[in-house]
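Q: A reviewer asked whether we had any structural model of the full assembly, not just the individual parts. We don't, so I'm hoping you can provide one. Inputs are below.
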Amino acid sequence: MKKITVLKIGGNVIDNPEALKTFLREFAAVEGPKILVHGGGKLATRLAERLELKVQMVDGRRITDKGMLDVVTMVYAGLINKQIVAGLQAVGCNALGLSGADGNIVTARRRASEPIDFGFVGDIERVNADLLGNMLEDGLVPVFSAIMHDGHGTLLNCNADSVATSVALGATALAPVDLVFCFEKAGVLRDPEDEMSVIPEITAENYPPLKADGTISKGMIPKVENALKAVSQGVRSVTIRSSARLNDGIGTVIR
Amino acid sequence: MKKITVLKIGGNVIDNPEALKTFLREFAAVEGPKILVHGGGKLATRLAERLELKVQMVDGRRITDKGMLDVVTMVYAGLINKQIVAGLQAVGCNALGLSGADGNIVTARRRASEPIDFGFVGDIERVNADLLGNMLEDGLVPVFSAIMHDGHGTLLNCNADSVATSVALGATALAPVDLVFCFEKAGVLRDPEDEMSVIPEITAENYPPLKADGTISKGMIPKVENALKAVSQGVRSVTIRSSARLNDGIGTVIR
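A: Here is a predicted structure for the entire assembly that you could use as a starting point for your response.
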């Protein structure tokens, strides 16, 4: 394989049927071996509310108790994953939906219960690059939800950005990997109000001044720092960009 | 491959966590390439009730409207499928969960809306034996829910017995196939009250008198006739047996 593209979409695409349809068509047109990782969106929260599950929050973060684990497994690994896979098949993209348990392709470790017990939440442990390689060689397009397993029968809810990064790092054993995070903006913006102010490139060299002068701030800091880390660990490039017009070349490239 | 075993379990196993655990251990011990097909159980109905979806019945059969399709996709292709896959991984069986949309492995055709419109219900059209063969050659154990797709972006709820039969027939392109239907009894019984009265073998020759004298009646008639049909179409054997003690050799073999 010449290269592998790993692409992550989040709730802003998943919650909008028209945006999702457009995205799936664009994704189908991405050339070469590729992998999709999807987040969850608001459906799981809405379902939990309709089921009157008690939402437990600690430090502003939701605890995944057994009831919530069942909900996210149903919504992420079931409904959303299969709708995306069927939608991709309809546009000629041979998608195959996966949780981490399927083929034991990604294992996670349940997060320590100290200082805060987040419940059935995991951090990625290992990606089975051989199986991933077999699938890509067979022309399949793996589509990951963020539901992983611990190898001992327990499903774990993971962070979709982390899943994308881990899968991308795992895939570097097979070919050069370009990782793309789609979000609601056209890229990392100099001016958050101006979609035309996309910073074209961020590197380990130009990042510190961008952070120091406040150009990159708040929620973009972890995104960019995780991207720089992925690059330092072997991913060829990380692009932060909009999910619309996926193939127009606009976005911030971190390398 | 010397032979392939296709095994189907229904709600009576899925709804009982202890029975399911025992079954998964027994299934993991089945030798050679194998495929599991699972039905749904009561969870989808309970979830639909909790969501206060209106259950529409026609001629005693439930209509799968869009809301119900989402529920069965969540429960069958999501929760139950991933719990089974994670459970099998925990006992060393390299399971991979599938809907029909995944890898376009099974397509279905939406049932005609005349005389009764059952909604998003499909009948199996085509099984991708090549992909199934690749997976089995790679040592994977495909685990099918009964959620299929039409190839044009629509998921369809199918009958799990029909999925098992179609997958078994498709797999005959790869190797001799033995199909096993697990249910709550030890096999087809001469006396429904006596678990020891299992009829060991039914063939096209001894079936007509068994039906004529009422030994095989009611719900067993379609089961046995579908099994005879599968055998006439190329499945080597169909066994009807209990899901407990899967490897004890007891059951009714149709060939």
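A: Points you may want to mention in the reply: The interface with chain A takes residues 50-51, 70, 73-79, 81-83, 85-87, 89-90, 94-97, 99, 101-104, 131, 134, 138, 140, 147, 149, 151-155 of chain B (CB under 8 Å). Chain B has one domain: 4-183.
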